[in-house]
Amino acid sequence: MKFAISFIAILLYATSAFAGHKLHPEIDITGAFGLKEHGTYDIDESQSSTGSLRVKVMYDINPKISAGIGCGLDGYHFPDYNTFPVFASASYFPFKKRKFHVMSDLGYSPKISENFEKGMLFDLGVGYRTFFREYFGMNFFIYYNLKQFKKNETLMFDNKPYTYKYNQKRHSIAFGVGFVF
Question: Picking from 6-10, 57-61, 76-80, 92-96, which range would have the lowest pLDDT averaged per residue?
Fold first, then answer.
């Protein structure tokens, strides 16, 4: 956990000097509602939820396309999983004013400690961005989230260890707000 928080802090600090230029940091806070989880076992998603804090460093390739990298902390509930996603991010702005955009993230969550699960990540959504100052704005978005969780769990039965391999996929709809610098 200390590693994850330190990594996010260093990423923010390293990019703060570029705020307002082609290279700029973004901080996103999201909440999600589960639609379906399936894999090794199926789960009723009516009570599942997700909370995320992600940091991205985006580069404006041209007026219509931004691309970058990011990382974050995602907490999935019912059942409980924690992940540290590291991902590539891209945004496409179809209109000249750069307000409405289509966005996508693709990445992997490594197992950084016993409390974190590994697996793939894919997000696809739309957003609306508005600036209040020249170098400060907000981003409001909704997206589809696909998350894979892979883990091995060893249980003891009759004093013998049995290892179970879980491979779950969770489908969610996420809503969020981001800060753009």
Answer: 6-10
Report residue 179 CA to chain centroid gap.
Answer: 15
- What is the pTM assigned to this prediction? 0.80
Distance CA 141, CA 54 (A): 14
Whole-number Å distance between alpha carbons of 112 and 120: 14
Beta-strand runs (E) in the chain: 23-39, 49-62, 65-77, 81-83, 86-92, 100-109, 119-133, 136-157, 160-180
Q: How many Å apart are CA 106 and CA 70, to the nearest integer?
A: 10
Instruction: Tell me how far apart the alpha carbons of residues 178 and 181 are, in angstroms, rounded to a whole number.
Output: 10
CB-CB contact of 51 with 35 (8 Å)? no
User: Hunting for tokens 């041209």 — which residue is that?
Assistant: 62
